[in-house]
Amino acid sequence: EVHIVESGGGLVQPGGSLRLSCRFSGLYSDSWYRVDWHRQAPGKEREVVAGIDIYVGETSSRAITYATSMNGRVIIFRDDTGNSVDLLIDNLEPDDTAVYYCSIPGHSAWGPGTQVTVSS
Questions:
Q1: Could you tell me the end-to-end alpha-carbon distance of the chain, in angstroms, rounded to an integer?
Q2: What span, in angstroms and rounded, lies between the C-alpha atoms of 75 and 27?
Q3: What is the pLDDT of residue 79?
């Protein structure tokens, strides 16, 4: 069974940065998986923020994509352990306030999300 846990959310002032982590387990080694970061703001539909393909068993990654709406303010990457896909968001704006979720579409797996609030 695939498990996903997001972390790193919190309250941040406009202009600040956050690093969110998506830690996963239960994936088969020697296989490629897609990992996506999404967010859902109050009263809005969930949207994809960024995605990356990862190879389990190594630290390889490929096929990185970003939502154009993020205007180049995000970077998605795999951490050195290979067991987490992190999202770095720079120059945060109040409109970035949302619950951020991580998913692995191949297993229809979602984490519980982590709240990001951007406010002065």
A1: 40
A2: 23
A3: 87
User: Which residues partner with 39 through β-bridges?
Assistant: 47, 100
Mean pLDDT confidence for 6-29: 96
CA 94 to chain centre: 18
pLDDT by residue (tens digit) across 100-111?
Answer: 999 999 889 999
User: DSSP strand E in the chain: where?
Assistant: 3-7, 10-12, 18-25, 31-40, 47-56, 61-66, 74-78, 84-89, 98-104, 109-110, 114-118
- Let me know how long the chain is: 120
Torsional sign, CA 90, 34, 80, 101: positive
pLDDT confidence bin for 80, thresholds 50/70/90: confident
Residue 98: closest CA among 6, 3, 4: 6
